[in-house]
Amino acid sequence: MTTSKVLWPLVLIPVLAILFSSWYVVETGHVAVEKTLGTVDMEEQHAGLNWKMPFLTRAYEFSAKEIVLDFNDLTPKARDNLRLKDLDISVYYRVDANAVAELMVKYAAASANSAEALLPGYGVVFREGRDVIYQEVTKIDSLELHRNRDTLRDGIAENLQRKLDAKDPGVFYITRVAVRALNTDPTIEAAIQKAVQAQKTLEAKKVQVEIANKDAEIEIARARGIAEANAIINSSLTPEYLQHELNDALKKFAENEGGVVVIPANMQGMNLMLDAQKVRNRN
Questions:
Q1: 199 plus 249 within the same structural domain
Q2: Which of 9-23, 159-173, 216-230 is predicted most confidently?
Q3: Fewest CB atoms within 10 A around its CB: which of 64, 85, 95, 113?
């Protein structure tokens, strides 16, 4: 074996090592931050093939996608000073892709590891998020929390965004908040059930009262109508009208050719007007 054949692998291996260590690939939705001999390059490297100094430069790949941060088994106190048994909240956020290098320098230990990439600012959002959750729960009574999940969720999102913007404007974006579990003390749960049932009973009673009021209005209207009708009838029953009706009746009785004629016993104020010719004929 010649000397050239022995040296060839010794030369090729270092060359290949240098070649393979001088480039890297950033996945879609991620950015990379390069660090050379302790110095961080403040310009992020985006998705695709990127080159770097072999051996001396290390590339840190960060996620620029939406990141979920779970808060589990929290036990904050509500406004009425009653402590929740279990509260699980998920906060979704993302980081401006052009601010990842700045976050890496400013919060050196705030990133978290994941299967795909580093999670920028994870520790910052976690610390602020936990405080905000406890603050927002203290604004609502324990008996009202179940019916005010939306209020709690919106309050967490708005307050957390405000706090993050105060420290790092335009860097963090809270995309949404989810209340995954909200469990109060069993005694409070029983009180909630009683309160809900009482509310339903009250609503049913209100409906019954409204129906009773409507029925009473109908009866009053009906009685008023009858009274008004009777008043009209009574006002029309003048002596002249009654005399006219009596005369008509007596005429019909007189036309029955000897039939029975019934004359009321009380005829005060009424004059009998009979057909004189027919009376004479009968006589």
A1: no
A2: 159-173
A3: 113
